[in-house]
Amino acid sequence: MSVNSAAVKEYLLELQDLIVTRLEQVDGKKFIRDKWQREAGGVGIGAGGGISCILEEGNVFERGGVAFSHVQGDKMPASATAHRPELAGCSWEAMGVSLVMHPRNPYAPTTHANVRMFMAHKPDGEAVFWFGGGMDLTPYYGFEEDAVHFHQICKNSLAPFGDDLHPKYKKWCDEYFFLKHRNEPRGIGGIFFDDLSVPDFDTAFAIQQSVGDHFLSAYVPLLEKRMNTPYGERERDFQLYRRGRYVEFNLVIDRGTIFGLQSNGRTESILLSMPPLVKWRYDWHPEAGTPEAALYDTFLKPKDWV
User: Fold this and answer.
1) C-beta of residue 54 within 8 angstroms of C-beta of residue 61
2) Taking CA 176 as the corner, what is the angle to CA 204 and CA 98, rounded to the nearest 5 degrees?
3) Which residues are catalytic?
4) What are the backbone angles phi and psi of residue 302, rounded to the nearest 5°?
5) Is 112 annotated as a binding residue?
6) What is the pLDDT of residue 24?
7) CA distances from 156 to 153, 281, 299 (A)
8) pLDDT tens, position by position, 245-256
9) Residue 115 annotated as part of some ligand binding site
10) What is the catalytic activity of this protein (predicted)?
11) Count of Cβ atoms closer than 10 Å to residue 204 Cβ
12) Is the model's pTM score more than 0.85?
């Protein structure tokens, strides 16, 4: 079996540049491109590098980041071996593109997308690989046509690989992006997959590529439709409150964040997904019959949108 990590890295760098260029066209402001390098040092900590593209105080995005990283280590972090104890102690490398965009307008949804590959190197020389990724949508005000569009593009991205993948990866997304301590989803889902290594490297890589290639067509039309909608203090206040759920998920549950911190990753890049302004309230609930309540009653309940 041929494992071509160089081809994966080339694709990921091209994807990052494509997404950043398109989002700059929407916003009108340029991302800061921060190239970084980390030297090896310490047990389990290897060399690494990447490019963190960050946009703050833009015309459309209050904050957003599109990050590429490629890091290696000589001992697998605990978060990566929880489901694969046989790989404990193996050397490893991980590469991926991860993005989170937080628009300023409360009617424009936040989005997250990630495509990545992880590889462990056994002492006998065998390379064990798996791909992961997906995309999901977190609106603050729900629109049925937006939900249908996003989920349809997600479905389209998986269609070439069989009819069984979309239901499986949609369900996986609904279950993964769920805050158990709140008993509620983070958003309206999308698709999510991990530990993908079958039937072979080329097919798994092709699935990853298709998911990455469909992101812009899933998100940008929704962003352009909603980013100039008039709003007031009420909508802004609710947006900041709901952003709190985003922070809770990323810091408490997200495997990528936990892995990055456990492997002594670059903190600024790992946490660039955090929104710039957030609010929490004690035991607050929206008033029945309001658009804010509709988010909970209609949209934050997993359903088959397409």
Assistant:
1) no
2) 60
3) 112
4) -50, 130
5) yes
6) 98
7) 5, 39, 21
8) 999 999 999 887
9) yes
10) coproporphyrinogen III + O2 + 2 H(+) = protoporphyrinogen IX + 2 CO2 + 2 H2O
11) 21
12) yes
Of 122, 128, 190, give the one whose Cα is nearest residue 154.
190
> Which tokens in the block code for residue 114?
């990630």
Task: Provide the residue ranges of all domains of the chain, joining segments of one domain with +.
Answer: 5-299
How far is it, in rounded angstroms, from Cα 54 to Cα 59? 14
Give residue-wise pLDDT tens across range 147-187: 999 999 999 999 999 999 999 999 999 999 999 999 999 99
pLDDT confidence of residue 89: 74
Show the beta-strand stretches assigned E in 148-226: 178-179, 184-185, 189-196
Residue count of the chain, please give it.
306
- Spell out, as residue ranges, where the chain has pLDDT lower than 50: 1, 42-44
Q: Residue 77: what pLDDT? A: 67
Q: With both helix axes pointing from N to C terminus, report the angle between 144-158 and 165-176 in degrees, rounded to the nearest 10.
A: 130
Distance (Å, whole) CA 251 – CA 36: 23
Instruction: Tell me what percent of the residues of the chain surpass a pLDDT of 70.
Output: 94
Beta bridge partners of 191: 135
Task: For the domain covering 5-299, report its CATH number.
Answer: 3.40.1500.10
71: which 2 tokens?
A: 């890091």
Does the annotation flag 116 for ligand binding? yes
